[in-house]
Amino acid sequence: MKKLLLLFWEFFKIGLFTFGGGYAMIGVMQRELVEKKNYISNDDFLDLIGIAESTPGPLAINSATYIGYKTKGVLGSLFATIGVVLPSFIIITIISLVFDAFYQLEYVKYAFMGIQACVAFIILNAGIKMLKHLKKNVFTITLLISTILLMIVLTLFARKISSIIFILAGGLVGVIIYLVTLNKGKDKINKESKAETENSKGDDKND
């Protein structure tokens, strides 16, 4: 129970002090859950973001459910999910009661403008951290550059494609590369095995 409550508290803090939604939470979750608490590894965290983005539901909730389950099973996922959702639920419920009057205040509008600028930096910082931990090889670098170029072209031509399309396309390309590599590996093993068999037959004839 102590570990479950600690898990709840960690995600409660993340949900309470993170502004800007799921993407802004990425950097905070990586620092608190990977670097400080070691709940999951950096590689698992990168996989988690891909899974959370390619499955239905908000990124923050999917991430909390996954990490909670990986840490303490079904109860862990329940405590983590409630922890990350509860702060937003409480705050939005309170704000909704006085939202119109609250948003009419001039300094509140400027405060939100400042928050938006900071959120943009937080998301960029999280992306840079993830890029540092990304396994660098020809496949990942080529796919990364291709995705960036494609997104720039689509933006210039005012075309919108959901980020889920890029994620699923990246996953599909990864599976194809894996299958091609696997088949090449099997062919190589078969050739080596065949060569060894032929050499063994030749040695038997010489004897």
Summarize, please.
With 207 residues, the chain is mainly α. 87% of the residues lie in helices and 0% in strands.
Which helices and strands appear, and what pairs or packs with what?
Blueprint: H1 2-17, H2 22-36, H3 42-54, H4 59-103, H5 106-133, H6 138-156, H7 163-206
Helix pairs in contact: 1-4, 2-5, 3-4
Helix content range: over 70%
Series of secondary-structure elements, N-terminal to C-terminal = HHHHHHH
The outline comes out as globular
Sheet/helix structural class:
mainly alpha
Radius of gyration, CA atoms, in whole angstroms: 24 Å
Describe the structure.
The protein is 87% helix and 0% strand. The protein has 207 residues and is mainly α. The protein has helices at residues 2-17, 22-36, 42-54, 59-103, 106-133, 138-156, 163-206. α1 (2-17) crosses α4 (59-103), α2 crosses α5 (106-133) and α3 (42-54) packs across α4 (59-103). The chain is globular and about 85 Å long. The protein contains seven helices and no strands. It has two domains: 1-134, no CATH class; 136-207.
